[in-house]
Amino acid sequence: MPALWLGNACTEHMVDRMDLLTEEDCRALLFTMKRLAWLLRDGDALVVPRPLPQSFLQHVARHTGLDTSSIHLVSPDVGLLTQDRLHSDEVLDPLRGIVTPEWEFRPYIHDRGSVTFAQALGLRTAGSPGFLTEGGAELLNSKVVFRALAAGAGFSVPAGMPCRTINDLTHSVTRLLSRAASVIVKRDRAVSGHGNFVITTDKDLEVTGALSTYHLTDPRNLDEVVAAAGLTSSHAPLGEVVVEEFHPGCRSVYVEVLCPEDGTEPTLVNSGQLRVGQDPPVLAGLELPLTSIPERSWREFSEESLRMARLMQRLGYTGLANIDAVVSPAGELWFNEVNARMGGSTHLHSIAETLVGPDWSDTHTLLSRFNVVAPPLRTLLKELEANALAWDPERRRGVVIASDDTDVSGTVEYVVLAPSRDQGAALEAKLEHILADARRRPGHA
Questions:
Q1: Which of 130, 276, 377, 440 has its CA 20 to 30 A from that of 180?
Q2: pLDDT tens per residue, range 295-351
Q3: Which whole number is the average pLDDT over 164-179?
């Protein structure tokens, strides 16, 4: 049966304070939702906040074989798909004449807003309806709740604690700095490192995964830290924060798992390492599959991730989930987050499967990078063809565009797929050189 895909990233059920999202934040989230085009099949429908550029849809269809005339796109041209917008006539009316109860429902996240949206269309939600209606998927996405569940089930997590008040924060930071040089403060429900900051007594520390760093000369003076966390002596107006020991030099890694609805054993779908940008030093892309950690660390990570997936499944969660950890240079592993939703690799895995086949990770490396400044998509695609960078099905290597926002922010997400990491790195270097040349041309913003 056809599927209804819903691009409901970062709604009121996913972030603590939507009113604090900037226009730049919203653009980045819209950029993310355009990736869902790679998951479409003939006859499907897709609800996204803003229209997909036709040139991008044609680029996707060229590689997937999608019949673009058979799909149904609903885009109210708004910021984000909050509940009021999902239940507007502008969104529901076009779907009521198309969607039937037999359709599959595929939201980005199965939050409470998506549940009531499915109910309005007579669609069945996957897994335990009670669990989802009560906010179960959102619960698992909370860093505060994750630490409690992980610690209770015996998973390795960084030393630390969740903080709701100033007293919580000062106690936790002081205690951790007495045993380590650095700690990280993370907003409970935020995205891509936003709201994260590091506190350190090491003046030479190089930080990744956080937007700002506070270098303390006196560990007892936490005034700036308290102000940045946004807590009060009685409550957390911006949401709770998690304080954890910060382990420098670690690799940030993930696995994507599938928790089947029929209760069968969860499976690993894909794995990878996070790629970090220079300014700011936060998530900027992924490298798949994960091969950069010791074999014993991989065994522990994969086995424990499946154990975590089984725990989620027993609670009532089904579908895709992403499990994040950090691995030290010595191979020590700490879990730090679960995202009970589609992830940043869902579309990448689909792209690789489409271009190479289901066992693509046995033979290929995938490198992605997003928010890359680029010329208009049609111009960029011509440049890829002219420089022998476009995906070549015979050589089984090349570049495709995973998301296009050149009409609004002038950026793209690209994917480099090659039979080895060295070949992928060489293709990426050539691509970056072409993009740098394009940025230097007169008239390029």
A1: 276
A2: 999 999 999 999 999 999 999 999 999 999 999 999 999 999 999 999 999 999 999
A3: 94
pLDDT in tens, 83-140: 889 999 999 999 998 999 999 999 999 999 999 999 999 998 887 778 988 999 999 9
Q: Which amino acid, residue 320?
A: L
User: Is the entire prediction scored with pTM above 0.70?
Assistant: yes
Q: Report d(CA 171, CA 185) in Å as an integer.
A: 13
Give the model's pLDDT for residue 15: 78
* pLDDT tens profile 407-432: 888 999 999 999 999 999 999 999 99
Strands 3-6 and 45-47 come out as parallel
What's the Cα-to-Cα distance from 67 to each of 35, 42, 61, 309, rounded to whole Å?
17, 6, 7, 35
Residues 6 or more apart whose CB falls under 8 angstroms from that of 90 comprise 76
φ, ψ for residue 419, nearest 5 deg? -70, -10
Token representation of residue 181: 């040089």
Question: Domains of the chain (ranges plus CATH)?
Answer: 3-137 (no CATH), 159-245 (no CATH), 249-340 (3.30.470.20), 349-434 (3.30.70)
Residue 443 pLDDT level (bands cut at 50, 70, 90): low
DSSP string for residues in 38-75: GG--TT-EEE-SSPPPHHHHHHHHHHH---GGG-EEE-
Nearest to 75 by CA among 100, 45, 97: 45
> Which of 258, 323, 263, 252 has its CA nearest to residue 285?
252
Angle between helices 377-386 and 54-64 in degrees, nearest 10: 40
> Any residues with CB less than 8 A from the CB of 40 and at least 6 apart, and which?
5, 46, 60, 64, 66, 71
State the alpha helices, DSSP H only, in 134-220: 136-141, 143-152, 166-177
Cα separation of 442 and 360, whole Å? 40
d(CA 397, CA 424): 8
228 three-class SS: helix
Please tell me whether the peptide bond between 289 and the residue prior to it is cis, using omega within 30 degrees of 0: yes
Tokens standing for 47?
Answer: 């609800």
| 340-394 confidence digits (pLDDT tens) | 999 999 999 999 999 999 999 999 999 999 999 999 999 999 999 999 999 999 9
Please compute Rg for the chain using Cα positions. Answer: 22
Give Cα separations from 209 to 106, 135, 141, 275 (angstroms): 29, 27, 18, 10
